[in-house]
Amino acid sequence: MTAQALLQVLVSGLLMGLLYALIAAGLSLIFGLMDVVNFAHGEFLMLAMYATFGFVFATHLDPVIGIPLVAALLFIVGAFCYAAVVRYAMRAKANIGMVQIFSTFGLAIFLQGAAQYFLTPDYRSIQASWFGDKTLNLAGVFLPWPQILGGLVSVMAFGALYLLIARTDLGKALEATREDQGAVALVGIDKNRVFAIGWGLGAALVGLAGGVLAIFYYIHPQVGAAFGGIAYVTVALGGFGSVFGALVAGVIVGLVEAVTASILPPALKNIGIYALYLGVLFFRPSGLFGKL
Amino acid sequence: MSAPSVILETIDVTQRFGGLVANSNVSIKVGRGEILGLIGPNGAGKSTLFNAIAGARIPTSGRILFDGHDITALTAPDRCRLGIARTFQVPRSFDSMSVVENVMVGSFVRASNAREARQLALETLHFVGLGARVEDPAIQLTPPEKRRLEMARALATAPKLLLLDEVMTGLTPSEARLGVELIRKVRESGVTVVMVEHVMEIVMPLVDRAIVLHLGALLAEGKPTEIVRNDAVISAYLGDRHRAA
Amino acid sequence: MTQETQIPAQDLPHDAALTHFAKSRRNQLIRAAVIFAGIALVPLAVRDTYLQNVMILTLLYAAVSQCWNILGGYCGQISLGHALYFGIGAYATSVLYVNYAVLPWFGMALGGVLSAAVALLVGKLTFRLKGHYFAIATIVIAEIGLLLVHNWDYVGGALGIQWPITGDSWATLQFARNKLPYFYFALVFLIVTWLITFKIEDSSWGYGWRAVKDNPEAAESLGIEVFRSKMAAAALSAFFTAVGGGFYAAFVAYIDPESVMSFRFSLLFALPAVLGGIGTLWGATLGAALLIPLTEITRSYLGGSGSGIDLIIYGGLIMLVSLMKPEGLLSLFQFRKGRPA
Hints:
The complex is a heterotrimer.
Chain A: H1 3-34, H2 41-59, H3 63-89, H4 96-119, E1 135-138, E2 141-144, H5 145-167, H6 169-179, H7 181-186, H8 191-216, H9 223-238, H10 243-263, H11 271-283
Antiparallel strand pairs in A: 1-2
Helix pairs in contact in A: 1-5, 1-8, 1-9, 1-10, 2-3, 2-4, 2-8, 2-9, 3-8, 5-6, 5-8, 6-8, 9-10, 9-11, 10-11
Chain B: E1 6-17, E2 20-31, E3 35-39, H1 46-54, E4 61-66, E5 69-70, H2 76-82, E6 84-86, H3 99-107, H4 114-128, H5 143-155, E7 161-165, H6 173-188, E8 192-197, H7 200-203, E9 209-214, E10 217-222, H8 224-227, H9 231-244
Parallel strand pairs in B: 3-8, 3-9, 6-7, 7-8
Antiparallel strand pairs in B: 1-2, 1-4, 4-5, 9-10
Helix pairs in contact in B: 3-4, 3-5, 4-5
Chain C: H1 14-45, H2 49-74, H3 83-100, H4 104-126, H5 131-150, E1 161-162, H6 180-201, H7 204-214, H8 216-221, H9 226-252, E2 254-255, H10 257-261, H11 263-276, H12 283-301, H13 309-324
Helix pairs in contact in C: 1-6, 2-6, 2-9, 2-11, 2-12, 3-4, 3-9, 4-9, 6-9, 7-9, 11-12, 12-13
């Protein structure tokens, strides 16, 4: 492999990795906040992609303009799913871990079914956009603009998330609730509201990712499953609950995937990520930055 | 040492958590058949020492000998088979099981089949006074009953040494009196008892001997009557507030 | 000593308590015999091949979910990767039969042993993990298995393995026209897994597993080797799951990676037990009896065009039951009356 080809692989991997990190961030945020794994996270991504598609279809505007709207919509979806499903799962008196796993699994299957019923199982894609199909030539390294956009959105989102957690009252409320759910009630913080906002934020983050992904990826009811799978590996790799860990792990996953894909046949492209995951599992069972 | 033979001995047990020293060079001896109180104010290192003896955590340095074995590095299940049983500060009943099933988990250590395990469990439950609740789900027990269940579970393993972690805390005076009777009965059946307690008043009438820890180190040991008059113990418990008053 | 410590008035003689328990165990067996006999008679009334197929699948899923229940329900380790063990059984049986003419009966047994060995390996890697880490690790490991089989030409790669067409025979477990033998095989398989669970419930392993599920630290203090305990549950669970996989391969006579090892199956093995009542004797059977006909029939009648209605019903049902009856639907029936759940 020439140096240039290697650079091509690494930069593509980095950009894709930033997008994976963005997808995983919401999952990690929710887990850190309340110890719940949202198994419908991939389906949130799928909804975001359809929402972007719908935005373009309805307004004929560029999908990039729609991304903030999609994120806002996903915030509502996330908060609603908390209020309608997860809130009750957390009240279960028996088998609480199991109830959390299977209620969000049920939600995932339900959302897939709903997408199939209302939007048909057809593959769709956004035909024309400012960024679609265009590449940037950097000294012989070709970078697709949508991926560059994804990388930028991801970096900005992580920056905003950092500021939100470190600098705002909402961030403090999130942090306090994560530390001690009982104590926050005493200082007048409504735990349910904080959790709903947490779910909203988590879904909004994946909404951003879905908005970008819709520009260059096929949209169909099962699209969430594949990306969801990568998100779980990413979060497990970075350490559950560690948003910063998700960023690092996402980039690692992107790089490993790109390198594997350049060496092995496409059918085996996930083997690198999986091997990495097994290695981490063996040597650091709680992930790179996780605390158990 | 007042006891004729020593069943448990810790030699220079030290436990560090990062920079914090929770136990420093603690050496104690427990005589066979005695009731020993391990007391001390909050943060004295009682629980740390308790966990080192129970096998929940291996000490940073030092040795622990039990009944002729060096158990310093043994796992909790191995210690159980050698004859050490324990309760937990916050009761940990098996909540998906009935009361008798909880105790059967313990009695299987020595029973060869389920019928025998059940028989032993029933006997133990009668011994601790839970005979009327054997078929109830463990989750329905009141907190003092859960303490008894833990005692029964531990006793069902037929221990030589029973470690009790704050079993009296939070009981009403009449419940505590019942608890005291039960612990005496346990000793009468030939089991050595080590009990960690924060509240001195409860344990002093019960124990043969008390060991006081303070700031991770051994502060005093002796008969309860001596301990309650020991100036170092009094100031450790009451701190400067007492001296100022 | 005061009288306060003893409650002799309420004491039951131990013999009476033991006899009472033995009697309730016997009653459970009698009830099971009646239920299974009842199931055995159903095909006499239902002659429709499609419905018989649904019943065979229901019994098979009930049995495999019963196996999952050993690890997930009794020992509390929520595996979402049991498709791996099912796949190992299906592939071992198929490869041995198609390539080496080894009868499926032996194939199922060998597949079971292989699967148990793999489960021990997986356990070594994953049983240190807690809660969600464990569940996700099992998903990923099963996906790795799927990926490897996909790319392994020796076992047919993505194309899978087609069983040769032969005459009807119990030796090769091939019945082309009359599906009833499969029905009875699946029923006996379910009875076997039920009896094993029944036997284990009142054994040191059974109590040990439930203790590990409820509170591992307390279990350790009572002499239970938690890790070894989980390993035993995993091996037993994987062995019989693989037997189920081998049977499934013989039943459908054609397997490919997606049709025996995809994540969908891992979910399908866990769900009946979860919906019916986790860690109970009848939960898996009850759950399968509701879930499998519902999904099969909605798929055939509503979802044939990929409309998604079947998924909406399926997902909605999972959500509803897990939220409203977290202890499982079995609690509605009070099967375990006389014995606390």
